[in-house]
Amino acid sequence: MPELPEVETIARELQDSSLIGASISHARFFWPKTLATGSEETFNQTVATQKLKSVSRRGKYIFLQLTTYALLIHLRMTGKLAIIPANTPIDPHERVRLYFSSQEALQFIDTRKFGRWYLHAKPEEQLGTLGIEPLSDEFTVSTLKNLLKKSSTRIKPFLLNQTKIAGIGNIYADEALWEAKIHPETPANKIAESKIKPLHKAIRNVLSQGIENMGTRLGSGRANYYSVRRKAANQDKLKVFRRDGLACPRCCTTIVREVIAQRSTHFCPVCQQLNA
DNA sequence: CGTCGAGCCTGAAGGC
DNA sequence: TGCCTTCAGGCTCGAC
Length: 276
Prior knowledge:
- With 276 residues, the protein is of the alpha+beta class.
- Helix content is 25%, strand content 22%.
- The strands form 3 sheets. Strands 1-6-7-5 form a 4-stranded antiparallel β-sheet. Strands 2-3-4-8 form a 4-stranded antiparallel β-sheet, covered by helices on one side. It has a two-stranded antiparallel sheet with strand order 9-10.
- A hairpin with a 3-residue loop joins β3 (61-66) and β4.
- The protein binds a DNA duplex (16 and 16 nucleotides) through α6.
């Protein structure tokens, strides 16, 4: 589900919530592997002394700053968070519930069980491998140019590589490449000089538009009927992602789907030429 | 360094 | 209706 815009939207919702300033009581892990650091017992010993100070985002991680620790949550494919009354019945797909002394709780629902929670005294050790934040002031055209020239990998997997640029996932990678008119299999260091500035702009455009629209919601049904996700509106703005067989909004050519680096990739074969 | 396949998991959707 | 296959917004590991 979540890429940078979705994670940012969720982090903002939590930051504006009644949980900020609240004391943590304890957690229950219904799927133990969700907790990637230590045991439930040590987790609970630690958080019992902590308050939630603030919530932000780094890459695709939700960063919960506690009094002296940090709780990092990665939603992976199907992770969802919601603030609920502490006595709400446990959902069949609920993997964690973090209880607060305010009688509220943070509920983590994750059908596929890929999501992970990390409790760290020094979260930078976990986050240190992440690349640059694409919406930060530090991410300039020349930063991007330097990253690209060091890599011969194809641009699609390059954009998905979190150690280079943090936060881009499959949706926004395809959308950015369409906007910049770049074929997804172009080697990063072979992208024409004239295309680097458009790519930089496209990455920032698609991500900030995603945030403005409170994220992209795909599919239908209960999987998305949750928390802030139901307000997501970016799915109606997508130009190529999961639009194979439909017309390119720019030139009307049929959009194609190909598997590149084991990820489904959507692009316009006319607008996005390999040698352009 | 780069690519590839498998693995982690479950459920929805499509073909027959 | 039921069975089987394919697919999924992410990431890691080991082999080559």
